[in-house]
Amino acid sequence: MESSSNRKSGSSERSKSRKRVVIAAGDSTRDRYSSLEASIVEKRDRAPSGRRPVPGTLTSAGRRVAGNKAEEREVRKRAQRRAVRLRVAAAVLFVGAVVLALVWLYRSPAFTAKTVDVVGAKRLTREQILTLAALPTDVTLLRLPSADIEARLEKSPWVSSAEVTRDFPDTIRLRVVERTPSAVVSTGGKARWLVDGTGIWLAPQSANATSASVFVRDVDGLDPVAGSKTKSETLLNVLEIVAQLDPTFMAGIRAISAPSIDKTALVTRDDVEVFVGSSDDIGRKQQVAKQILKDQAGKVVYINVRTVDRPTWRGLDDSR
Q: pTM for this structure?
């Protein structure tokens, strides 16, 4: 019987002939990463398109989605443009319809004037106002040339201003502001003219006509034209005096003599001459003259207040 020691011994010998293989940790990690990289490459190579996708590019499915969105945006833009065009067309049609309606209404006999009211006329008669206005025969409240009518009315020397208004549905109102005569002026011989407070010549007046306005005489160089303004400084000075005197005092004045500004004198109904000169400080001049007339009632025939601080007067028998 053979001893088993020989086998063991042989086994030991064979064991000795084997190589020892040592697997380092670093080698094992590199192998695992290599296997993972090989798997990724294999999956990429199996892509349906047969080629590798480039980073940052869309796949065919992505391109289809992007194309659908772009088409939807374009459809929305076209719809918005159509809506804008429709709104513009509707607005144009509406404005056109309104314009046509207004033109038809303007040319139609609607709102025909049936009544004409005249307001403010005292010197001028209603017939004179209507003649000056010259309303068209087919006038309506919509076809009323107000500015032209006002201009025609204001051509009258008596009319200071005019206003034409509508009172729907069928009334036209002519409102005038007349000039008021401030004085009756002798312009030479028996000729007399009415003049307003601003110096506008209104109309001639016959010598025997009566008027509540003060009578002005002795003014040289007058050449009155109806509707024009006097250029006489002397007459304008008289009109300023008349405008500032107290009405109760003016009631006692029969006439104003004005051969010049310095020689302008008020002539009372008792034939007392009150020399006032220029219209400067006329209020004080009036008060001084009134006091002298009161104190010297029935005695004085001449008063000079041209220098208001040093008035003088003359009675029947003396002078001061």
A: 0.65
End-to-end CA distance of the chain: 198
Kindly state whether residue 190 falls inside one of the protein's structural domains: yes
What confidence tier does 244 reach under pLDDT thresholds 50, 70, 90? Answer: very high
Residue 245 CB burial class (10 angstroms; 0-12, 13-18, ≥19): buried
- Collapsing DSSP to helix, strand or coil, 40 comes out as helix
Indicate whether 23 pLDDT > 70: no
As a 3-state breakdown, the chain gives helix, strand, coil percent values, each rounded to 5, of 40, 20, 40
301 within domain boundaries: yes
Q: Where are the alpha helices (DSSP H) in the chain?
A: 5-17, 25-45, 60-107, 126-133, 146-153, 233-244, 247-250, 282-295
Strand, coil or helix: 62: helix
Burial of 282 (0-12, 13-18, 19+ CB in 10 A): buried
In this prediction, residue 111 has a pLDDT band, given cuts at 50, 70 and 90, of confident
Choose the final residue of a domain: 150, 178, 206: 178
